[in-house]
Design brief:
Layout (H helix, E strand, L loop, with lengths): L2 H12 L3 H8 L7 H20 L4 E3 L13 E3 L12 E14 L3 E8 L2 E8 H11 L7 E11 L2 E6 L6 H17 L3 E5 L2 E3 L3 E10 L4 E10 L17 E5 L4 E2 L6 E3 L6 E8 L5 E7 L10 H17 L5 H19 L27 H22 L10 H8 L1 H28 L1 H4 L10
Parallel strand pairs: 1-8, 2-3, 5-7, 13-16
Antiparallel strand pairs: 3-4, 3-6, 4-5, 6-7, 8-15, 9-10, 10-11, 10-14, 11-12, 15-16
Length: 447
């Protein structure tokens, strides 16, 4: 849910206490703190815990230019190294010689003040190269974007408009293997690819569990809103990167990992045991999020911390506000449990996230609106029933039912949307049900 939805939810809890409503009527704004408590779990995670979390791997397929804040970064020839293989950069220099050129390929040498390197363009990229640069000759000064590669003759720059997905796939596979071997959580930060004009290159990370392979698909350019731009797809020969892992892994978050307009995610990989005792590496999406901070336990503790502060300032309705704040905190946990990721609900009794209900997976905005409407309705209903005489002369159940009609309709559709999604989800997981069958077929690469 959005932050303002959580704030409204916390505020709605204050409206159930006549004493807190009376304070608000008199201009005493302390009960508004329940709204703050409704937002507090996300504040803890995104404003504090996020910056304290250790990142073991930084996966940056197309580093930003430090001045322009877009990709690709312009580097010197001396900075081209094997550990940057498949990353997206740009080189600027003078053409010293054209080594060869045919109908679908050109190879030439480019020199700057730090050295000389081969540059290659072939097939569809050769056609695009010719459209941009025309017939190049020694002495021409050009800036060439592409990804770094290596062959028998050494390092080279391959002209392209995107990084090669093999870099991302190899880094994810390496992190999974390290998580299994070390026994600790390995966290990977994956950056997005920002091009000029607030345009982003989309890519998708797919976990092929039965074959123990990570597949990365480079997609088209998209707008900030995620709308694909026609004609910007990359050629087939550099669209997919694949890397094998040594050890089995398990993806629990049902959506594919798609990175485009927003800052890329952080993904944790943690060795764990399945119910049958087998060990796998489990994906933990955004590992610093939805942990202890998103629990009923945390709600109790943070609410109790409020009590001495209210006592020191001599507030007269301490426990009403403490309980309302706790309920506001809990509402955040409950609302987040309606989605995919779920929360660690009752630590220390629970050790990890409990999967969410997946309610309304394809109507995220609608679910936010319905929840906000529900909270505004509860505030309105409580104000009406605690006011004498009542502004709306209807019985409590009738008035509440009328107020909740939009919420009931949207939530009902959300339930149906969830049912449809779960049906597709079951079909999706039939493929991964082969995990069991592959237990005795190590040559294929299952668990």
């Amino acid at each position: 849910m959005r932050g303002w939805t959580h704030f409204l939810s916390g505020l709605a809890m204050a409206s159930f206490f006549p004493e807190l409503l009376a304070d608000l009527r008199m201009g005493i704004l302390l009960p508004v703190i329940t709204g703050v408590y409704g937002y507090l779990p996300d504040f803890i995670d995104f404003k504090i815990r996020r910056f304290l979390w250790k990142r073991d791997y930084i996966v940056d397929p197309a580093p930003w230019d430090p001045k322009l804040k877009i990709a690709p970064m312009t580097i010197k020839v001396k900075d081209v190294r094997e550990d940057k293989r498949y990353q997206f950069y740009a080189l600027e220099g003078v053409v010293t010689s054209v080594l060869s050129e045919s109908n679908d390929r050109i190879i030439f040498k480019l020199r700057d003040d730090t050295g000389e390197i081969r540059v290659e363009a072939f097939m569809d990229d050769y056609i695009r190269f010719k459209k941009i640069y025309g017939d190049i000759k020694p002495g021409d000064k050009i800036r060439v974007p592409g990804y770094i590669d290596i062959d028998n003759e050494g390092l080279k720059l391959v002209f392209s408009d995107a990084p090669h997905p093999q870099y991302i796939a190899s880094m994810i596979a390496k992190a999974i293997d390290e998580a299994y071997e070390s026994g600790r959580m390995i966290t990977v930060k994956v950056f997005n690819i920002r091009m000029s004009g607030d345009i982003y290159r989309r890519f998708l990370i797919h976990y092929d569990m039965p074959t123990r392979s990570i597949k990365v698909y480079i997609g088209p350019l998209v707008t900030t809103g995620g709308v694909p731009i026609k004609g910007t797809e990359v050629p087939e020969y550099r669209r997919v990167g694949e890397a094998q892992t040594k050890y089995p892994f398990l993806k629990t978050y049902p959506r594919p990992t798609v990175i485009d307009a927003f800052s890329g995610p952080e993904i944790g990989y943690q060795k764990t045991k399945l119910p049958d005792g087998r060990e796998v590496v489990e994906e933990v999406f955004i590992p610093w999020h939805r942990g202890f901070s998103h629990s009923f336990t945390a709600g109790i503790l943070f609410a109790l911390l409020l009590a001495p502060i209210l006592y020191l300032i001599n507030y007269h309705h301490i426990w009403q506000l403490v309980i309302a704040s706790m309920l506001g905190y809990w509402m955040h946990v409950i609302e987040d449990q309606l989605g995919f990721m779920g929360n660690n609900l009752l630590p220390p009794l629970t050790k990890k996230r409990i999967p969410g209900l997946m309610l309304g997976p394809n109507i995220y905005t609608g679910m936010n609106f319905a929840t906000s409407w529900l909270m505004i309705s509860l505030i309105t209903w409580n104000i009406n029933r605690f006011t004498t005489p009542r502004p709306v002369p209807l019985s409590d159940p009738v008035f509440l039912l009328i107020l909740l009609i939009p919420t009931i309709v949207i939530y009902s559709y959300g339930v149906w949307d969830s049912i449809k999604f779960r049906r597709l989800y079951k079909v999706y997981w039939k493929y991964y049900a082969t995990l069991e069958a592959l237990n005795e077929e190590e040559l294929i690469g299952g668990i």
